[in-house]
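User: I'm preparing a small set of examples for a lab meeting where we compare how different chains pack in three dimensions. I only have the primary sequence for this one, and I'd like the structure in token form so I can line it up with the others. Please keep the answer compact; I'll paste it straight into my notes.
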Amino acid sequence: MTRIQIDTRQQVGKHTNIDSWFDSHGIEYFYQKLDFGDYAEVDNGGNIVVDSKQDMQEVAGNVGHDHARFVRECDRAAEAGYRLYILVEEHPEYADRDLLARWVSGVCRRCRKCDPLESKCVARRFKPLNGPTLRKIIDRIEYDHGARFLFCDKRDTARVICELLGVKFEE
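Assistant: Understood. Below is the structure token output for the 171-residue chain.
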């Protein structure tokens, strides 16, 4: 049986859907710190690690405000010989990069004082990170740092993690 290691820094209670799915499909897992990513297969010497993101808003924060830290994590994975997949939950429609360019930050959706995809922000000193810029950053991270962004529905996250890691599960 193949086991999945889950990073201990995962937010407690935020991923109970994944643990429940693992339990109901016969997946063995344990919590232990990972140097990068959130999920890794540990028994067959796999070289894939999955980092889960709750939604595009979290991704925007990671590749915007926390860009340097995020890129260091991607580089650590690559230097250790791992392929890092960034699995974004909740927005499978953004798998089409043209649609990703239409994503609007939650800050802009609440404000509504301007068109965030067409004009400068009139309410803040900074322009929140929105789809067109986010798409360029994601494409650049994939190209420069070897990470790969994938998108899935939240209810499919655990299954996609298993598929990426090559972990067989009970149907």
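A couple of notes for your slides: Helices lie at 16-24, 56-63, 67-79, 97-100, 106-111, 131-145, 157-165. The mean pLDDT is 86.

User: Perfect, thanks.
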